[in-house]
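Final report, closing paragraph on structural work. Over the funding period we assembled a curated collection of sequence-structure pairs, and we close with a single example.
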Amino acid sequence: MQQISVTQLKEWIDTGKDFLLVDIRELHERQTFDIGGLHIPMGDIRQHIETLPKNKPIVLYCEKGIRSTITIQRLESAGLDLYNLSGGVKAWKGAFA
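Its predicted structure, as stored:
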């Protein structure tokens, strides 16, 4: 499984790299703190699989990186270029908030 650090993700954002950022947390979590990107809760992501791009990296994130790891494992056969944000929002807050 591909991992991306918060530092590398910030660099991708700052340099305008073409990728999709997806928050898989629940809505109440997102309302508390939001890195950005598309919001598709973990339980709904399979319903949106056809709308996710196959031609660019997709970074999934959650609070600590555990749910996004599980989600990526479930989507591995979909032919997507998936990355897990190591440490999730907790690591992002520790580095940048």
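The two ends are 27 Å apart (CA to CA). Strands lie at 2-4, 20-23, 38-39, 57-61, 81-85. We thank the funder for supporting this effort.
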